[in-house]
Specification:
The complex is a heterodimer of chains A (243) and B (684). Chain A has 243 residues and is an alpha+beta fold. Chain A has five helices and nine strands. Helices cover 26% and strands 22% of the residues of chain A. In chain A, the strands form two sheets. Chain A has a five-stranded mixed beta sheet, with no helix packed on it. Chain A has a four-stranded antiparallel beta sheet with strand order 1-3-7-5, with no helix packed on it. In chain B, helix 11 packs across helix 13, helix 15 crosses helix 17 and helix 29 packs across helix 31. Classes of the chains: A alpha+beta (243), B mainly alpha (684).
């Protein structure tokens, strides 16, 4: 019997070793400085794909009350719908910035992200960032936009694609213009795309695309416009009385 | 033993004093057994999801409609010819409910709009996973043999690629991935057979190495082999991660096997004064070299096209005598090159060659010092060239082109997990395996030869998407569902003009009869479109149309007779059968008709938003300027173009305005009055 006494000892040793192997939660990075506001440096309002990393990383900056960048402030990112960040939390670098790669969730649509930090007294302050994931339909709409519409509706002019915006006597609306969009139903948009500006008593500088684009392409274009609208598009819809 | 038996008997008597009791107990047991099935059903995962769904829709405005649509119990889509038995809708109850667009909690989310109907294709054709399963774990995450888990959303476009083999607007990643497979020559080593029996073809253009010593030095070959990206960031040649000794030996072998070819070099004329660098620079610009060749600007960004190789450090690569000969006639060195044969004068040649050769990087070869090779080194180099399969892409004297050099990837998207070897710590799924293989090809074991590519994260995703589309299912699907890519035709223009067009490589940018690039307009019906004097004049000086474009038609300096030959060929051969180009007069329209056309142009159709007629007041710059269109285009072409632009040039962005015959006639009259003044083509 005495010969077996080593068993409990060995078990204790194994348990102790097993416990030591338990992953110790990495201590959250300790903030060395505090700011009072987070601003977006770059990477907001990108067009991404469901489940995929955004083309550009998201860069935020923490500023103090005077608007100077703060080094070593702790920033944590969060978002709904299965968004992942890499890293999720860290300290700002020597220029007061923190860069994170964003992986959107598995469904298309609008993703609201938050970057949060705290000031000296521990009071939190946050920044909201919007990112967009294009589904199949919005992707088709994006392609239609790039091929036909953006040449006039996009004010951004590049050497590869010179914008015609400045050449037009009546300026076209940007597709991100949310206020204008809220006033237009899907039927209005279909009419103006299909029959040109005069369909809604607008300028004839907008030509009709009804005989050029297919019905599905027009629908896709509208879905895309609705997605990129800023502020987010509010469908008029049916309003039901509260129960 | 006896005592146990006695105990049992006494227990039996204590419980069942009455003989009827055993019957009652057995009945209760039977009832319980019968209740197991309905209870299992009631407490199943899918049942709780259906109950959650009913609670979710209860508070919505259209609850009654949604409740009427709802069907309880196991729901199944059965499509025998696609091999689909999908019960996904058992839990995903709201897939087809358009009014649930705002619901984001799964499994009740509406399916985003796609062109296919749910009950025609089912779910697993696109999403994979186990359609017949009725639990989340089994349906989504099964990793058993012959079963596959759900495809991660980022690769979902790969499923489109199982049937659609042509690029589509809605699948940018799949399109990009397929283009990368072709452009980086992946399919040269890895055969990819498509369901229709065709092979995916490479679009890169690896140069022959049979006479490479005429072109460059051994030092450059060594540095290039060590790291192609350090020479050109856009290099499609991958990094084979060679040791210094291996790169030394391969470069020795390539130089030793190279045999000079007559005409590869041309002595640089020793002129009394150095060529004017400004002349070379302006010639580089005028010849639109940047339409095909990129260079790095000061900020490190590539500027220019990607048809030809990057020229940032070209002076550190090529020998001046070779460059001189190459610019004079590129097809002498490489018969299949994309580079057009410009007709430069000797003076221009020297100036341009001098300018191009000045694009050097003194650091690039600074640390390369190679001693004369020994025969052993050359022999070892040859062995390495064979081992790494260099001859799959490059023509090398003395090394035969190996067949099936790397594993075939025709069905990589369905490769069973059991056949994959993962590296430590990586997630054990097929997409992660493919992704890892592209990122770290040599990490999967010793002795692997696959080279390292410098792809961005987006490019790796695109490649993985394209590879995952190569599934067993795509071969098993009925052939009526397969939509083949439109292959490039092998159209070849005939005669001497055809030979000229091959020398100028018109097809690099223009498409004619289904062959060629899409950088410049399709010329299939150019003979119907333009007037002969204009075309002749344009070939002489292509600056006359859209002068502000960055990538545009270069001037080839054709001789008068060559120009006449090409022009005649275009005017005769490239005509549409739909109308006669001479059916409408080039001029002599009534003033009233022209005025009517002017008003239509500026008011009803507002053509000035994209085109200019009067450079003083019009600003539109999307379509070509129409200031001289009456000397450029035929009236019949303008008329038919206005009626339906896409019928004459598919894909053109000018909208079809469903114009009446009368309006089109008036606009044609107005446009035909916009003539050149005092230049060729004016006298019509």
């Amino acid at each position: 019997m005495k010969r077996l006494l080593w068993i409990p000892g060995a078990m204790a040793l194994v348990i102790a070793a097993g416990c030591a192997r338990q992953p110790v939660a990495a201590p959250a990075a300790q903030a060395t400085a505090f700011g009072s506001a987070i601003v977006e440096s770059s990477g907001g309002k990108q067009l991404g794909a469901p489940g995929a990393a955004l083309p550009q990383p998201l860069v935020v900056q923490v500023n103090d009350a005077q608007g100077n960048a703060v080094t070593g402030a702790f920033v944590i990112f969060s978002g709904s719908g299965g968004v992942r960040f890499e890293p999720t939390e860290s300290l700002t670098d020597s220029s007061g910035q923190l860069t994170t790669n964003v992986m959107l969730g598995g469904t298309s649509g609008r993703y609201e992200l938050r970057a949060a930090s705290t000031d000296k007294s521990g009071k939190p302050f946050t920044l909201s960032i919007t990112e967009l994931a294009l589904g199949y339909q919005e992707q088709v709409g994006y392609a239609v936009d790039q091929n036909y519409c953006a040449r006039c509706h996009d004010q951004e002019s590049s050497a590869e694609r010179v914008s015609n915006y400045d050449n037009l006597a009546v300026k076209p609306h940007a597709f991100t213009d949310g206020q204008t969009q809220d006033a237009l139903s899907d039927a209005d948009l279909t009419a103006i795309i299909g029959h040109g500006g005069p369909a809604l008593n607008h300028s004839a500088l907008m030509p009709p695309y009804g005989a050029t684009l297919s019905r599905a392409e027009v629908q896709a274009l509208i879905a895309y416009i609705r997605l990129i609208s800023d502020p987010p598009w509010r469908a008029a819809g049916v309003v039901y009385a509260k129960r | 033993m006896q005592s146990i038996k006695a105990q049992f008997i006494s227990l039996w008597r204590a419980w069942f004093r009455d003989p009827i009791r055993p019957f009652g107990v057995v009945s209760v047991l039977l009832l319980l057994a019968l209740a197991v099935a309905p209870a299992k059903d009631h407490f199943s995962e899918w049942h709780s999801y259906q109950k959650q769904y009913l609670r979710l829709i209860l508070d919505r405005g259209d609850a009654v409609t949604l409740q009427r649509h709802f069907r309880g119990g196991i729901q199944q889509i059965w499509l025998p010819d696609l091999g689909v038995v999908d019960r996904c809708q058992t839990c995903h109850t709201g897939l087809a409910e358009a009014s649930l667009a705002d619901v984001s909690t799964q499994p009740f989310r509406r399916h985003p709009p796609i062109p296919h109907k749910l009950d025609e294709f089912g779910c697993v054709v696109c999403h994979r996973g186990q359609g017949a399963a009725t639990t989340v774990a089994e349906a989504h995450h099964s990793a058993l043999a012959r079963e596959e888990p759900i495809l991660p959303a980022r690769y979902i476009e790969s499923s489109c690629g199982q049937c659609h083999h042509a690029p589509m607007a809605g699948t940018p990643r799949l399109n990009e991935g397929r283009e990368l497979l072709a452009r980086y020559g992946c399919v040269r080593c890895h055969t990819i057979r498509l369901p229709d029996g065709s092979m995916m073809a490479a679009t890169d253009d690896p140069p022959p190495l049979t006479h490479i010593a005429d072109k460059t030095t051994r030092e450059w070959v060594y540095a290039w082999l060590k790291d192609p990206a350090s020479y050109a960031s856009s290099a499609t040649m991958p990094n084979f991660q060679l040791s210094d000794a291996d790169a030394r030996d391969i470069s020795a072998f390539l130089m030793a096997t190279s045999t000079p070819q007559p005409g590869d070099t041309l002595a640089v004329p020793a002129s009394s004064k150095a060529p004017d660098p400004a002349a070379g620079a302006s010639l580089y610009g005028e010849s639109f070299c940047a339409s095909c060749h990129a260079t790095q600007n000061a900020a490190g960004n590539l500027v220019g096209g990607n048809i030809g190789p990057e020229l940032t450090r070209i002076g550190s690569k090529v020998k001046p005598e070779w460059l001189q000969a190459w610019l004079k006639d590129p097809r002498n060195y490489d018969a299949h090159t994309q580079m057009p044969h410009y007709r430069w004068t000797d003076q221009e040649l020297t100036a341009l060659a001098g300018y191009v050769a000045n694009k050097t990087d003194s650091d690039f070869l600074a640390n390369v010092h190679l001693d004369a090779p020994t025969p052993q080194q050359i022999a070892h180099g040859k062995a390495l060239v064979t081992e790494y399969g260099c001859a799959v892409c490059h023509e090398i004297r003395g090394v035969a082109k190996p067949e099936n050099f790397a594993p075939e990837l025709s069905r990589i998207g369905s490769k069973p997990l059991a056949q994959l070897v993962f590296t430590a710590g990586m997630p054990k799924t097929l997409p992660d395996y493919v992704d890892g293989k592209i990122r770290h090809p040599r990490a999967f074991g010793a002795g692997l030869r696959m080279p390292l590519y410098t792809f961005t994260a987006q490019q790796v995703d695109a490649l993985t998407t394209a590879l995952l589309s190569l599934t067993d299912r795509s071969f098993a699907l009925p052939s009526r569902l397969q939509i083949a890519a439109q292959p490039m035709t092998t159209y070849q223009p005939a005669g001497h003009a055809g030979k000229l067009m091959a020398e100028l490589n018109c097809f690099a940018c223009h498409r004619i009869n289904g062959r060629g690039g899409d950088m410049a307009p399709d010329l299939t019906w150019e003979g119907s479109a333009v007037q002969r004097p204009w075309l002749d004049d344009f070939l002489k000086n292509p600056n006359t149309l859209r002068p502000a474009l960055i990538r545009r038609m270069p001037r080839f300096n054709l001789s008068n007779s060559e120009r006449a030959e090409v022009t005649d060929y275009f005017m005769t051969v490239y005509q549409t059968a739909d109308f006669d180009r001479d059916s409408m007069p080039l001029g002599g329209y009534s003033a009233a008709l022209v005025e009517q056309g002017r008003q239509l142009f500026y008011s009803k159709y507002s053509c000035q938003s994209c085109h200019m007629v009067n450079t003083q007041q019009d600003k539109g710059y999307i379509g070509p300027p129409l200031t001289q269109v009456g000397s450029r285009l035929n009236a019949a072409w303008i008329y038919h173009w206005l009626k339906n632009p896409q019928a004459l040039r598919p894909g053109t962005i000018e909208p079809n305005q469903s114009m009446s015959d009368e309006d089109a006639g008036a606009l044609t009259a107005f446009l035909m009055m916009q003539k050149t003044s005092g230049k060729p083509g004016a006298k019509q």
